[in-house]
Design goal:
With 415 residues, the protein is mainly β. α1 crosses α2. This is Right handed beta helix domain-containing protein.
């Protein structure tokens, strides 16, 4: 991480040395006030912007003007308490179509940063990544790959990781080959009022604790919203996520993830998928026309070598959601399983795994929907799978009550 920031500084410094430092503020940036820097569109815009990001002091607001700006190298910010502000997510566009290498469009490794009112297009790698960036705000941003779904697109659109107190709101992401909005290995998270469409996964919370995901639209992805916990990462044991008041509709885009990616196994047509996580509450969402299944609750299916890891979903609550259409054309691994039960799947599907090598326990799945809402336990039972023991069932599991996590409160959230 630090090597990337240092090397970016060196590249920017070398470029300035080669061009010669000008006293004309129009060629770099002008200070409106001690804490307000306006980036000029004249001259070398990329160098102007990266220099401002390097030279910023805590409390600085860097303003990017309206326009479409082509950049060939990624940007980086490693100064705390900086705001990067554009003229609007449809007015200030940083286009990385000619980017050299496969890095991020913007990498943030600082605390108390605000990113707002601009767009990033066509990065070779991730759109905007922040790592170890506590109390960050992503607000009124667009990240997009303008040629549509393609496995060559960057993996993640908005990508905070290893952070505390993450706020993502009014963000739009299109075309990510992994997840549009992804939060990983983090604590205290809010994702709200955002749109994720035409990604492999629309919104993903992974190996994280205390997340509220609400008021979002997840549409036209392969999978709408994912809550995963995976082994072999520095932080495992994700728990305490609330998914509520979201529109999760027509997530029927083909899965275009590169082969070998974990999300490549998500069946196209999945509304919401919970894998190997605990204390996840799914309520008051609207599920419409997701062709495989609206809700899919599963264990981690691959070989496990991480002794810290529990591969089973535990204490999952599904209640008070609205369902319409869907389940009529299951894809991926669900297709042959659906054929075995008549070709279609009900709104809520579980794999029925209760045992995985050294792990064996009651998952405690609380399916608290009206009886008219269909449910299917695929009856896999255990991994590795024994086909002779698979026994599908439509009987809802007996379960114990699970206390809902408290709402997430963030220190930087003034609402």
């Amino acid at each position: 991480m630090r090597f990337f920031v240092f090397s970016t500084f060196c590249i920017g410094f070398a470029a300035l040395a080669a061009c010669g430092k000008s006293d004309d503020p129009k060629t770099m940036h002008s200070a409106q006030a001690d804490s307000d820097i306006e980036i000029s569109a004249d001259g070398d815009f990329a160098t102007n912007l990266q220099t401002a990001l390097i030279e910023a002091q805590p409390g600085t607001t860097i303003r990017i003007p309206e326009g479409v700006f082509s950049l060939e190298t990624g940007l980086s910010l490693d100064v705390d308490k900086v705001s990067l502000v554009g003229a609007g997510q449809d007015k200030t566009i940083l286009d990385f179509k000619n980017q050299a290498g496969a890095g991020e469009g913007l990498l943030v490794t600082a605390d108390d940063v605000i990113l707002t009112d601009f767009a990033i297009h066509n990065t070779k790698g991730d759109g905007i990544k922040s790592k170890g960036a506590d109390r960050i705000i992503y607000r009124y941003l667009t990240v997009e790959w303008t040629d549509g779904p393609d496995e060559k697109n960057g993996a993640y659109g908005v990508y905070p990781v290893e952070s505390d107190d993450v706020l993502i709101e009014n963000v739009t992401v299109r075309g990510a080959s992994d997840a549009g909005i992804y939060v990983g290995q983090s604590n205290n998270i809010i994702v709200r009022n955002s749109v994720a469409e035409y990604n492999v996964a629309g919104i993903e919370i992974e190996n994280s604790t205390a997340a509220d995901v609400y008021g979002n639209v997840a549409r036209h992805n392969a999978g709408g919203i994912l809550v995963f916990d995976l082994p072999d990462l520095p932080k495992v044991g994700g728990h305490s996520t609330r998914i509520y008041d979201n529109q999760i509709v027509t997530n029927n885009t083909r899965n275009f993830a590169p082969a070998g990616n974990i999300v490549a196994g998500v069946p196209s047509g999945t509304g919401l998928m919970v894998m190997a996580n605990s204390n996840v509450h799914v309520f008051e969402n609207t599920f419409t026309d997701n062709r495989s299944a609206h809700v899919l609750l599963v264990a981690y299916p691959e070989e496990i070598k991480d002794d810290r890891y529990n591969p089973l979903p535990r204490d999952i609550v599904v209640r008070d959601n609205s369902y319409s259409g869907g389940g009529h054309n299951p894809q991926g691994i669900l297709q042959p399983l659906a054929m075995a039960v008549g070709g279609t799947l009900p709104p809520i599907v579980t794999d029925g795994v209760t045992s995985w090598t050294t792990h064996s326990e009651k998952p405690n799945l609380v399916i608290a929907e009206e009886e008219s809402i269909g449910y299917l336990d695929l009856g896999i039972g255990r991994y590795p799978v024994d086909p002779m023991q698979v026994a599908p069932s439509t009987t809802r599991p007996k379960s114990d009550p699970v206390d809902e996590p408290a709402p997430v409160v963030l220190p930087q959230d003034k609402k």
